[in-house]
Amino acid sequence: MSDKFTTVEQQASYGVGRQLGEQLAANSFEGLDIPSVQAGLADAFEGKESAVAMETLHAAFSEISTRIKQAQEAAAEAAAAAGNTFLEENAKRDGVVVTDSGLQYEVITEGTGEKPSYESTVRTHYHGTFIDGNVFDSSVTRGQPAEFPVSGVIAGWTEALQLMPVGSKYRLFVPHHLAYGERGAGAAIPPYSALVFEVELLDII
User: Fold this and answer.
1) Does position 2 have pLDDT exceeding 70, yes or no?
2) Does some domain include residue 132?
3) DSSP letter at 61?
4) What is the pLDDT of residue 1?
5) Dihedral sign, CA of 161, 134, 173, 97?
């Protein structure tokens, strides 16, 4: 830890800067210039006239907004293409079942219990990854099973759970249109992401 900020005022001021920095990092753009940000912050705080004309600022904001939108669209197209390619190849593997909706699954363990219905509430363990293997969510890692209505999850899960007898463990390969679609899910799951889950149906509750 730094001993640079020794007074309460310095520490609180640093905290304000940290919070602003975190907000900027979460809503950044390529080429963001921190010294320019600092200059704008200082000028505004001190009540100085803007060093950049308002017309120029508006034009710059518009240009950056256009660039961000274009980058997002390109990333979405790339994600959709990668997901489609993955699923096309995956469908050729032995043991992979493809349903009419486009959901793919393979049976790891076939249980012998009752199958849930659309109206059921279930208890599961799951491990969710992107197609590159990176984990985005896992009840297994948390060590705490998840409980939810079959009707209250993504469409791929809703379909798959009704195929699974209690005690089953399936691996699901979920196209984006049966997952979080064109919007994604916050910062965790980008738009047009195909997802892979290992789902163990523990019980119907």
Assistant:
1) no
2) yes
3) H
4) 66
5) negative
Averaged confidence pLDDT in the chain: 95
Q: What mean pLDDT is predicted for residues 147-171?
A: 97
pLDDT at 187: 78
Per the CB < 8 A criterion, the answer to whether 122 and 158 are in contact is no
For the entire predicted model, the pTM comes to 0.76
Give the CATH number, domain containing residue 159: 3.10.50.40
Residue 163 in any domain: the answer is yes
Domain hosting residue 168, numbered range: 95-204
